[in-house]
Design a protein that fits this description.
Radius of gyration: 20 Å
Distance between the termini: 39 Å
Strand order of the largest sheet: 8-2-1-12
CATH superfamily of the largest domain: FAD/NAD(P)-binding domain
Low-confidence stretches: 53-61
Number of domains: 2
Shape: globular
Number of strands: 12
Structural class: alpha/beta
Helix content: 25-40%
Length: 210
């Protein structure tokens, strides 16, 4: 089976790790599954070192796309621990533990607080971590061979047919068996799901801020 993951961010890399762990291998003599992660930004392993070098005076496109920081709740941390315990410990070491969220007014008055700690005998706290740091921890567990820096311009998903993808530029497209959309707010995969075959212009259900 040929699996294409569109987007090389946090969700794309984690989706690959889950599929590698839980997708049953095909019975012989069938070929092993093929995995491809396509992203338009640099996803090389040395990206973390370049971003924090003395010469990195400005944010890169990748940093802007990934964002600043996020909080991982106990439920998310438990999912990561079931996926890969070594990855879980790397992520925990790279962030800092928090036990509650505080909501403050513009002048610093506390409006309220929410406990974010499990009630187990050994409670698990939430974790604050930089998005780029989290991405780098996960990236270390994904082989270079499956990641391709190439922009996908179109996905066609027609009933009864294998999905196909097209690339920006002169690279020929290809058919695949499964396409995962991990390509964010302006997802080209979501557009394919909610568009008729041959429809090029408007997206039927675009994201809307409210």
């Amino acid at each position: 089976m040929k699996v294409v993951i569109v987007g090389g961010g946090i969700s794309g890399l984690v989706s690959y790790l889950f599929l590698k762990k839980h997708l049953p291998n095909p019975a012989p003599p069938a070929d092993a599954h093929e995995f491809f992660i396509y992203g338009s930004h640099d996803a090389s392993r040395n990206l973390e070192r370049r971003l924090h070098s003395k010469d990195a005076l400005q944010q890169t496109t990748n940093t802007i796309a990934i964002g600043g920081g996020l909080g991982l709740g106990p439920n998310g941390l438990k999912v990561i621990k079931r996926l890969d315990e070594s990855l879980f410990h790397e992520i925990v070491r790279s962030g800092h533990s928090i036990t509650q969220w505080k909501m403050l007014a513009a002048r610093g008055w506390e409006l309220g607080s929410v406990a974010i700690q499990t009630e187990e005998v050994l409670p698990m706290n939430s974790l604050m971590i930089g998005r780029q740091t989290l991405w780098h921890c996960i990236r270390e567990h994904v082989p270079d061979a499956v990641i391709v820096q190439k922009k996908i311009s179109r996905v066609v998903a027609a009933a009864g047919k294998r999905p196909s993808i097209s690339f920006a530029g002169d690279t020929p497209g290809m058919d695949c068996d499964l396409v995962l959309g991990c390509d964010g707010l302006r997802s080209i995969v979501r557009k394919a799901i909610f568009s008729d075959v041959g429809e090029e212009s408007t997206e039927r259900y675009p994201p809307r801020y409210e």
